[in-house]
Specification:
Blueprint (H helix, E strand, L loop, with lengths): L8 E5 L3 H6 L15 E8 L4 E2 L15 E6 L4 E6 L6 E8 L20 H7 L8 H5 L6 H15 L4 H8 L10 E2 L2 E2 L2 H17 L16 H8 L13 H32 L3 H9 L2 H11 L5 E2 L7 E2 L7 E3 L7 E3 L1 H11 L6 H9 L12 H28 L1
Parallel strand pairs: 3-8
Antiparallel strand pairs: 1-2, 2-6, 4-5, 7-8, 9-10, 11-12
Helix pairs in contact: 11-12, 11-13
Keywords: Membrane, Transmembrane, Transmembrane helix
């Protein structure tokens, strides 16, 4: 239905008695009265609008024959043919119907009655496991009933009916208002036809085959790829680049692999070709485990092998030196066997061992032990253990007697 620059006056006529008090007292005739709809009338006033063309629209009711209008100016007169409305206010009647459906119900019984708004809302609650009393007071307990109350509240909280929209917007709610220039109204039929054809042209495309070369096909693989690559900002996810993570991971693995293989390559070149033998020996000897070997070997503890490998080793069952903490500012390694033997030989009781240990820690010197052959050094270690065991047994016996 086309429109014109006019002020529509809406007179709603509700079938429910309660709405007659807040609406109008208009009662439609039998030809307009409908039991299954809300009926309302809207009146269109011309407001001295001059139409440039005639129209067959029943609401605007424009004259079929033009009228000559003379415009008088300061220095000239201008005659124009225009078309005038035949009625000061032309009415149009509308019937609004509503229907509520529950898509969770299968079959044909999932929709309520198609009728007026009040009747449609009155017949809908049973489909949503609630009653009209609970729905109207927002006290529905079932989940479908709460959804119906939430959705139905829109019809009572906001004016979304046709008559309410026309009552709020007035003439601005008509499409013809956009083509009004001063007091002149362009052809409404041509504008209405152009709008409808634009919808059809968008849906079916152009009728001229030569224009298809200019058409953009959004169903191509490239278009679909572009559509699927859209990025939507959301606080529920975090976006970051994997390049940094992969770079750190791969670069770190390469460094670790080079560090592991470099010593093996140096060892191979040193043993097979004698390449930089001193540098390789210094590198290997300065390893953490080899430095510990040097410390224990310096005090004569252990018979060592694999001295050029990453991990040195001693003979099975050999003892290593212990840490002497007599001087807390200068802790040193001491040979544990000689130290304990010298201390226990002098002790008369367990209480004297700490004092004698302090005295013995400075007198025991392992420098001569390094000059002995491995067999003789092992024999001396075994001989040193015998007085320790005898002394421990004797002290333990005296302790029991006491």
């Amino acid at each position: 239905m086309a429109g014109v620059n006019s002020i529509p006056i809406s007179f709603p006529a509700f079938l429910s008695q309660i709405f007659l008090k807040s609406g109008s007292d208009f009662i439609p005739i039998d030809a307009l009265f409908r039991q299954d709809a809300d009926t309302h009338l809207s009146f269109l006033s011309g407001n001295d609008v001059l139409y440039l063309e005639t129209s067959t629209d029943d609401w605007y009711r424009i004259a079929k024959e033009p009228t000559n209008v003379t415009w008088v100016g300061a220095n000239e007169e201008m005659n124009t043919q225009v078309y005038l409305p035949t009625e000061p206010a032309s009415p149009v009647g509308c019937a609004d119907q509503y229907q509520f459906c529950n898509t969770g119900i299968k079959g044909n019984g999932r929709c309520g009655p198609l009728s007026s708004l009040r009747d449609a809302l009155a017949g809908a609650p049973l489909l949503f496991n609630t009653s009209y009393a609970e729905f109207s007071t927002y006290e529905a307990e079932s989940e479908p009933g709460l959804l119906l109350a939430y959705f139905g509240n829109v019809f009572f909280s906001f004016d979304i009916t046709v008559e309410s929209i026309l009552g709020q917007l007035g003439g601005h709610g008509l499409l013809s208002h956009r083509t009004l220039s001063a007091a002149y109204q362009e052809s409404m039929a041509a504008r209405f036809h152009a709008n409808i054809m634009a919808f059809i042209g968008t849906a079916v495309g152009p009728t001229d085959d030569s224009l298809f070369s200019l058409r953009t096909d959004y169903a191509t693989p490239k278009s679909n790829k572009l559509c699927n690559s859209r990025k939507i900002r959301s606080t529920a996810y975090g976006s970051f680049s994997l390049f940094g993570l992969f770079f750190i991971l791969i670069f770190g693995m390469v460094l670790a692999l080079i560090s592991y293989l470099l010593q093996l390559v140096s060892e191979f070149l040193c043993k097979r070709k004698g390449y930089k033998a001193f540098a390789h020996l210094e590198w290997t000897t300065n390893g953490a485990l080899q430095l510990q070997r040097l410390a224990h070997e310096e005090i004569g503890m252990g018979t060592w092998k694999k001295c050029l490998d990453t991990i040195p080793a001693t003979r099975k069952g050999e003892l290593l030196g212990s840490l002497d903490t007599t001087d807390l500012e200068h802790p040193v390694h001491r040979p544990c066997i000689q130290k304990v033997a010298a201390t226990l030989d002098k002790a008369q009781s367990f209480g004297e061992t700490d004092t004698l240990n302090t005295q013995a820690s400075g007198t025991v010197s392992p420098s001569a032990a390094n000059q002995l052959p491995p067999e003789e050094r092992t024999s001396r270690e075994e001989q040193a253990l015998k007085p320790i065991l005898r002394k421990e047994k004797s002290l333990s016996s005296n302790s029991h007697k006491t």
